[in-house]
Each structure stands twice: as C-alpha cells, then as structure tokens.
C-alpha cells in the first residue's frame, strides 16, 4: 500500500487500501430503524448476526452475503449516497468529507487496539440480532453514535 494512502481521494484508492481504511469499530454493523412517518433513522445496540462483539469484525466477511443478503457493500459511490448511515467517527465518512482520521485510528496509531481503548468501538455493549426480536429493536435505540 502507498504511504499515507488514506489522505488520497477515496476514488483513487486501490481495493486493498479501501478495505484497510476501516477502523474496526463495528458501528456500521449495528441495526438501524427507519421510521416511515418521519424518515428518521435510529441506531440500536442490536448487532448483525455476524458481528464478533469482541473483535468488532465480521465473522464471515468474505461470505457475508450468503448469510446476510442485504449487507451493504460500501464503495465510494455508495458512500456518497448513504454517508448519513455511517457513524460520525467512521474513517470512510471522515475522508469523504476531507477530514483527517482520528489519532486512535490504527493507521495513525499503528495499533488496532486503540479504537477500543479510546472507547469508540462497539466492543462489549451490543446484543446479537439472533437474541432480540425485530419487534423489540425500539427498546434498544441508542442516543449517540459519535
């Protein structure tokens, strides 16, 4: 990968660099509720069935569509359409708006644990969607995802 590739425009990244931009927080794997009457979107602490709550990574990333057909494949184009869907701390969202990565991002710190040490990941506070009925997701809405 190129030196400081994350500072390049997202459209210029290779697939490997694009994938490496992920900070490993796991927030994008939280289920969301869209309220039809207002169009508002609320984040929950209910995670995708494939999210490993300790590593905050997908347990079957390369085969995820086999288990979760509607899992979003994030691309620069898709990002422009749905960046509101990502948390404010997300490296993809930050770079899409020409903002720098946070110091806790592993590309800056050199350590994949700093996202967890900074308290920015979902480690330890999610519930798996297999254990919560979708009818009860409103009971799991979280206030702030920044």
TrEMBL record:
It holds the Pfam family CxxCxxCC. InterPro entries: Puta_zinc/iron-chelating_dom, UCP006173. Belongs to the UPF0260 family. This is UPF0260 protein ACFSCT_12610. It comes from Paracoccus pacificus. The lineage of its organism: Bacteria, Pseudomonadati, Pseudomonadota, Alphaproteobacteria, Rhodobacterales.
